[in-house]
Each structure stands twice: as structure tokens, then as C-alpha cells.
Amino acid sequence: MEDCEPPLFAFGIIADVQYADIDDGLNFKQTRKRYYRNSLKLLQKAIDSWNVENVKPNFILQLGDIVDGFNKKYDASQRALDTVLREFNHSPAVHHVWGNHEFYNFTRGALLSSVLNSKSNQQRSSDNDDFYAYHFSPAPNFRFVVLDAYDLSIIGREESSDKYQQSLKLLKDHNSNEDLNHPPVFSGLEQRFVKFNGGFSQDQLQWLDHVLSKADEMQEKVTVASHLPVHPLSTDPICLAWNYSEVLSLLQAHRSVICFIAGHDHDGGYHRDDSGIHHLTLEGVIETPPQSNAFGTVYVYEERMVLKGNGRMADRVLPYPRSLAEQCSI
Ligand SMILES: Nc1ncnc2c1ncn2[C@@H]1O[C@H](COP(=O)(O)OP(=O)(O)O)[C@@H](O)[C@H]1O
User: In this structure, which residue's CA is closest to atom 27 in ligand 1?
Assistant: First the structure.
């Protein structure tokens, strides 16, 4: 893991903080404890740690579900959001990804006019209006793309919208349960057709294709971030994006793509696909015991990235697909 050369830059990663000022509880299946108040403390510790690192992260990727849906029930959504965002006042710049819990608390319109809209800080913010996706380049030859995994969804879309109707039809075609959060089957890939997941519209896939084609041309290295994972071997399939295979094919068709980072599955996961793309699903802070943590710093080098994980998050070396270092074995 030790590298003699200094990294080109570094960035922080953290997922599923799901803060709420309520007592500890359990997930729906009652298999995992959730530490709603303590998640804020773990976020504070992560930020403190990033702030004292030798190579301070240029930015933080926050993979979504920053506040828990329970806040809505207690009319505490804005208070909880203000509380977590206050912590980020002391951190490097943050790129916020949107997850299902953002939509349990806020409408899409409210999110667009909130601090969670990191896209509004980007120059190219106006090239797509109907989904929350954007890209940025923090250093020459490196690009990051933030995707909207709830572009097709029945949470966060107005019932009157085409996207809502299209999403409802897709869900109902695969899930005949009255409660659409209840999976249609108990194992396998079809489990993903639940209301708490979503997908990517054709417009967003076209936009992504265009961004990645340009990155290929420029010989950039691209990391893509989304709340929902897109590789079945990087997650419990119940957490996959509905049209994960379309995104996966697109990523694999572009040589610029090196890494896909997601949240949502609090157990985390990792898989390197046949094209050499690393699929990292981050362990969720909300299900992390108080004495541990779940965040990381990714150090970016010419030929690889190195993830230094904390607590439940493992260290990993992530060589670039087709890189010289990989051919020579790292
Ligand atoms: N098997 C299930 N049947 C019915 N509802 C479920 C099921 N699993 C989850 N849910 C509901 O779906 C929503 C999201 O589930 P949850 O486990 O809280 O997701 P997250 O990991 O995003 O917090 C919650 O409202 C939860 O009650």
C-alpha cells in the first residue's frame, strides 16, 4: 500500500450517513442495527480525519442518503439536513449524490434549490435539466461523473410526469405486490424491482455516452458515482439499479472508465469486471457501530488509485484498466 511518489491528488468517500435525531433502530429485515444519532459523530470523525491528512482530499464524494427518511415523519427533514451540512462547513468541497432518502425528505425541486445541488456549482450545469447528473475534472486527465439513479423512479417524480408513469409501469411489469417496496422474489436479480430503487432515463444514458466519448478522446480517466450500484457482483442484487445492465454496457464500452462508486447497500461490496473497471460499493455509516467507522481516502496516481479505508472500509489498490503498471504487475 505504501507509495514513494506523492499522489497527483486525493478525494474522500463516504456513504449512507442517514442521520436522524432518534434512538438506534433496525433495518427493515431486523438484521442490522442502525445508529441514527451516532452517524453524525462518525461523519464528524471522518471530516476531522480528512482535515489532518498529509495529502488533504481535494473534495469529498458523498454517495447519498445523507439524512434518514424518518426525519420526514418527525417534521425534522430541514433541521437534520442543516445539522449534517454544518459539519461539511469544515471539510474540503463536497459533491453530493442523491439517494432514496433524499427523496423521502425533499421534493426534487427543493433538492435542486438546496446545498445538496452540487451540480449548480459546475460550469456545465445547464446541459441537462431533467436529471441531476454532471461531471467535473479536478486535475488534468481525470474526470468524475455524478449520476442520478432516481431519474426513473416513483419517489421524487411528480405523479403527473412521464417519468413517473414510465417508472410505475416498469415496476408493475416486474412486481405484482401491493407494496412495491416488497421485492417480487426472494433471490436473484429480479429483486431489484422495488420502489426504493430507480433507474437511468435514455436521455441520461445518452448524455453519459457523450461525456465518456469525449473523455475517451481526451485520454482521461473517469470515475463514475451513483447512489445505486450497477454490477450484480458488487452488491446484494436487491440494491441494483433497475436498468443496471444498460449502464454497465455503456461503461464497459468506454476505455476511459476506471471506477464506479456507489452506496445504498450498507454491507458494501467490491468487484472488478471483465473490462477491468472497479465497482466499489461503500459500507454505510448508518449501520456502523460507534467504535468503528466507514469512510475512505482515495489517492490518485498516474497508474492506479489507492483506497485507504477506515473501520469497516477495506484498503484497496485499484490499478487502471490497460495501464502500464498493471501489465508489469504492480
Ligand atoms: N422487504 C420489504 N418489504 C416491504 N418494505 C420494505 C422491504 N424492505 C424495505 N422496505 C421499505 O423500503 C424502504 C427502504 O428500505 P430501507 O431498508 O430503509 O432502505 P435503506 O437501506 O435505503 O434505508 C423503507 O420504507 C422500508 O420500510
Answer: 28
Note the pLDDT tens digit of each residue in 50-101: 999 999 999 999 999 999 999 999 999 999 999 999 999 989 999 999 999 9
DSSP string, 291-327: TS-EEEEEEE-SSEEEEEEEETSPPEEEEPTT-HHHH
Fold type of domain 9-327:
Purple Acid Phosphatase; chain A, domain 2 (3.60.21)
Query: Tens of pLDDT along 302-319?
Result: 999 999 999 999 999 999
CA-closest residue to ligand 1 atom 8? 28
Question: End-to-end CA distance of the chain, in Å?
Answer: 10
Which protein residues touch ligand 1 with a CB less than 6 Å away?
Answer: 27-28, 65, 100-101, 179, 181-183, 196
Residue 158 CA to ligand 1 center (angstroms) comes to 21
Short-list 197, 157, 167, CA closest to 181: 197
Q: What is the pLDDT of residues 232-287, one digit of tens each?
A: 999 999 999 999 999 999 999 999 999 999 999 999 999 999 999 999 999 999 99
Q: Which residue puts its alpha carbon closest to atom 14 of ligand 1? A: 196
Atom of ligand 1 nearest to the CA of 284: 21
Residue pointed to by grid coordinates 466499489 = 280
Q: What are the boundaries of each domain within the chain? A: 9-327
Which residue owns the Cα nearest ligand 1 atom 1? Answer: 182
**CA–centroid distance, residue 16 to ligand 1 (Å):** 14
Q: Residue 330: pLDDT above 50? A: no
Task: Please report, for residues 202, 221, 325, the alpha-carbon distance to residue 217 in angstroms, rounded to integers and kept in the order given.
Answer: 22, 11, 22
